[in-house]
Amino acid sequence: MSSLQEKFPDITQADQPLAPLTWLKVGGLAQFIVEPRSVDELQEVVTFCHENETPVRVLGVGSNLLVKDEGVSGVVMRLTHESFAQVSVSGTTVTAGSGALLSNAISESVKAGLAGLDVLVGVPGTIGGALQGNAGGRSGDIGQFVSSVTVITVKGERFVRAEDELSFAYRSSSINELAIVEGEFQLKEGDSEEITRRMRKLWIMKRASQPLASQSAGCIFKNPRGLSAGALIEQSGLKGTRIGGAEISDRHANFVVTHEGATSDDVLRLIDLTQSKVAEQFGVDLELELRVW
Ligand code: EPU
Question: Does the reported pTM lie above 0.90?
Answer without folding.
Answer: yes
